[in-house]
Specification:
The chain is α/β, with parallel strands linked by helices and 294 residues long. Helices cover 31% and strands 24% of the residues. A 6-stranded mixed β-sheet has the order 6-7-8-3-9-10, sandwiched between helices. A 4-stranded antiparallel β-sheet has the order 2-1-4-5, covered by helices on one side. The radius of gyration is 19 Å and the shape is globular. Adenosine-5'-triphosphate is lined by residues 54, 59, 77, 79-85, 97, 263.
Length: 294
């Protein structure tokens, strides 16, 4: 860890990444109706001494960090160091993996994530987007409306409003508004991924977890999704796993670097994106961000 503690609110310096300015941002999308307009860090998720086991194997150990509201945190590190396991523990997807055991503390606002019995509400607050776009094999409209119905939104007009607003948020509305009843699987890979993001947004989450959301996309679609994530700054708390260090360098307000030793992942360094990529403190981080390790 570097001398400044990223678990404390980050005080912006002139040299830091400039927060977004919606007034001057030509890509601002949809109404910014939640949270401050820019990344003004405030602790939201506290993780303390987190460990993840699959059967007898401890794959992640001693993870302590604080994730800030409205900021974009990138998880980086080589394959197998536990990034996905960490991400999945934040909304208890780890519960669905046979033999998986999680230890330690995770709090989201005042909620004890590990203890809560209301996992459905937790997953509504903490949405997840996967590497491979996974729209339902239904129409574009039903992909958004079905989860809304399942979460009790019975009013058709309200569902229609949400449908339009989230498709606008991901920049898809103008592309699909005339074919909302077409199959979601007829969309391009990049459009499918944006639809999946819209589906997550429809449930009005506070946090979005994204596991390599661009890695199955062509470069152009990848750039569109990347831009989308940066526009979420201030509006959603975004935690994204990426193997693309250039991408992480471009978009991360904070970056957490994981590394595995003998199969057990640990957090090597956690800091602002700028410091992790420009002035990392740990030799392993220096080597990794310069492409000399991992
Ligand atoms: N369901 C599972 N059962 C057993 N072991 C698992 C399971 N899922 C992951 N692992 C193991 O846990 C370790 C961490 O995996 P994880 O997917 O969290 O790492 P990662 O950093 O996200 O990797 P990648 O970048 O390749 O996705 C790996 O050794 C992996 O083989």
């Amino acid at each position: 860890m570097s001398s400044e503690n990223p678990n404390q609110p980050h005080r912006a310096k002139a040299t830091d990444r400039q927060p977004c300015d919606p007034a001057s941002d030509p890509f601002t999308i949809g109404p910014v109706d939640v949270g401050p307009p820019c990344c003004v860090p405030e602790p939201l998720i506290h993780v303390k001494n987190l460990a993840v086991h699959y059967g007898p194997q401890c794959v992640l150990d001693g993870i302590t960090l604080t994730i800030h509201r409205g900021c974009l945190t990138a998880l980086i590190g080589p394959s197998g160091c536990g990034k996905t396991s960490f991400l999945s523990s934040l909304n208890r997807l780890t519960d669905m993996i046979p033999g998986c055991r999680v230890e330690g503390e995770i709090t989201l606002g005042g909620l004890d994530v590990r203890a809560t019995r209301d996992v459905i509400s937790l997953r509504r607050r903490v949405g997840m987007i996967f590497q491979k776009p996974n729209p339902f094999p239904l129409s574009i409209r039903k992909n958004i409306e079905m989860p809304l119905k399942e979460h009790g939104i019975r009013n058709r007009a309200e569902r229609g409003e949400i449908l339009q607003s989230v498709l606008e948020d991901v920049g898809l509305w103008s592309e699909v508004k005339d074919r909302l009843d077409a199959a979601a699987l007829s969309l391009s890979g990049g459009q499918q991924q944006r639809l999946c993001i819209a589906r997550a947004l429809a449930l009005r989450p506070e946090v979005l977890l994204l596991d390599e959301p661009c890695s199955a996309l062509d470069p152009l679609s990848s750039r569109v999704v990347e831009e989308l994530l940066t526009r979420f700054r201030g509006r959603y708390t975004v935690v994204v796993v990426t193997h693309n260090l250039q991408q992480a360098r471009r978009i991360a307000d904070y970056a957490a670097f994981f590394w595995a030793t003998e199969g057990t992942g640990s957090l090597i360094e956690y800091d602002t994106g700028e410091r992790i990529f420009e002035t990392p403190q740990q030799p392993l981080t220096v080597a990794y961000v310069n492409g000399k390790a991992g």
